[in-house]
């Protein structure tokens, strides 16, 4: 044992001696390196001072060349990339002011503007601005920066809300470092005293840790971002200038005067809020708006003294029951139909059609020229926008029916799930007996194992083309109306519980996608006044609320069906059932508390049904709704006027009482006569479809000038009325109409879990839309939507309401300023490359040019979008 202990002690002594000697030599080597490093830095500083003294009197050109030569020499080794996880060797301070340099910001020179900044932190430490952590005084070898961040780092970034608060680089704190920043004149170890780079031994190469801790092998320095971002975004772009004819012809003068008249008529009709939302609510906090913690909370409100009564199909509001003064006058039916016929005469004039066709073609060719000259610049500008791409910009499904908001596979899984878990649930009353879910399927001779997507038979196919009646039958799973009543209706025996659960699953899918929103249409048939309370109670009792969803109310134009069934006696009954409860809850919220809470989430009113049905065009003097007692359905424009007039007065009253308002956003122009589009031009804020605008160049040009939103659904049109390759969407987009993509009926049309992305994907593939095009369309969808001002500010920029590039934030929309400047920039016949040096220079806009052309140089153009 003594021998063993002696050997062990000797071994320990030898090992300790070896470690001590090694540590001594390593320490000595480190001190030598530090001394050599300090000498190198001092020599370099001396050399810089000599250059400044020697070339102080040179001309600016020589001085610029010298500085460029000096920068190139420094670029051989000075502009280094640093690891995000290791301290920087060049951050060591020297001298009496070391404390200030260690705690203060690192000033970076010679870096192109527009580059993102990287905050270098130790792993696991927070990056608060108030941190006073001192940089260590030991030298740590730097590692090359990996050009590819780990997947988990990007995922964690996208899943957080921090990316939504990205601001312009010029506003970032100076304590952030550029990715390719130069932290001063200090020389790295692989640079000799003459500034020449020395070869680095393989043993000295160190693998860098990504933010998530993953290891990456050494790769070349990432210079692609430097190339993309070395020029400020949209600083240089190409333009054309087209000089218009100085003296318009008499036909053109007449046409422009008529266009002005049409636009002025629209201004008289369309409801606009007296105070814009961005004037009511100033957004000072750029962070993510907090979710509403209690969306269904009801606070009792007192009844106002307002009195209303229905006269000739339109509700009139008075300050009190004794007062005879009407508060909110609206154009009567005779005036509306007179103006409608006047517009129809204007759009039929030959000189109007010629002029508008010429202007629309010119707009289209301007866009094609813009793409030829600037598409590469737009692409580079998008690459320079950190974190943003098509997948994480907000996009709103501006037209989708709630009963078809899920895809067919989702519905199939839900039906099978309920059949397996709740087979004994009593779900329907038929033929004098109550049936359970299992008994319903047994009566259909079906089991859960029999069900598949093909048997469900809810998907549109060739048989539905030009057959709106067959398309509506696709809402019946397995062709059975009883299954539709059980799973896709809210007014059934189980009070819509299955549909509510299905809706919540769709809400969860939207919340998971984060960047997709929807505006679902709920049906209000007008068969009885209690429908409003039933619908509102279904929403409130099932707590159907999502930050990604708002509601619209759709009114099917089915008066003739209700008349034949004996449900209504005149069209007046239908109007009473639809609008009287809305005025009652506005005057006295306590009368319909659930409806009062529900209306806070309702942003629009829609008119739906088959527009291809033949109808008589209304005359100037039409029967009143009380006189309309025949079995024929009123014309489309008849529905439009009475819905518009009552909604206009309702909005005026709700605005007066500080309540939310409801926009008029009907289906229009999917099929049928052109007067549908003329009626909605006068009255609607936005419309759904609008494909028939291709038949009327005058109306198309008017929709362009007024920038009326079009929620288009090419895949839905392809199943019903218009082949996909003939859809006018790409032409409308080229010409600058305010278009967005929507799904309409995912249950019947789409195949994937994300129908809106599917719509964008197919459009991009068929029509060769670029990433910039897709992001512009997505931005349009947010503009058209009824989401709150706070959410729009967060999604597309705090000044989104301004026209042109002033209202754009590329860090949120991923739409380059170049594109929005084009949409507004006047072009000419000579190609020029313009460098914008003064950001305050006013740029004339294409839309403004068209307005100036119409108004002959004296337009009144607001600086903000329509309220």
Question: SSE layout and pairings?
Answer:
Blueprint: H1 2-54, H2 60-75, H3 98-103, E1 117-118, H4 151-159, E2 177-178, E3 208-209, E4 215-216, H5 224-229, E5 236-239, H6 250-269, H7 277-280, E6 307-311, E7 314-318, H8 333-347, H9 350-383, E8 395-401, H10 408-421, E9 426-430, E10 433-436, H11 437-443, H12 453-456, H13 468-473, H14 481-487, H15 497-513, E11 516-523, H16 531-541, E12 549-556, H17 559-565, H18 571-587, H19 593-599, E13 602-608, H20 636-656, E14 663-664, E15 667-668, H21 675-683, E16 686-689, H22 697-706, E17 709-712, H23 714-720, H24 729-735, E18 739-741, H25 746-749, H26 755-767, H27 771-784, H28 789-796, H29 810-813, H30 817-824, E19 832-835, H31 846-854
Parallel strand pairs: 8-11, 11-12, 12-13, 13-14, 15-16, 16-17, 17-18
Antiparallel strand pairs: 1-2, 3-4, 5-19, 6-7, 9-10
Helix pairs in contact: 9-22, 9-30, 16-19, 18-20, 20-21, 30-31
Summarize the structure in words.
The protein has 867 residues and is α/β, with parallel strands linked by helices. The chain has three domains: 47 residues; 131 residues, no CATH class; 551 residues, Alpha-Beta Barrel (TIM Barrel), CATH 3.20.20. The protein has a five-stranded parallel β-sheet with strand order 8-11-12-13-14. A four-stranded parallel β-sheet has the order 15-16-17-18, sandwiched between helices. Strands 1-2 form a two-stranded antiparallel sheet. β15, α21 and β16 form a beta-alpha-beta unit. α9 crosses α22 and α18 runs parallel beside α20.
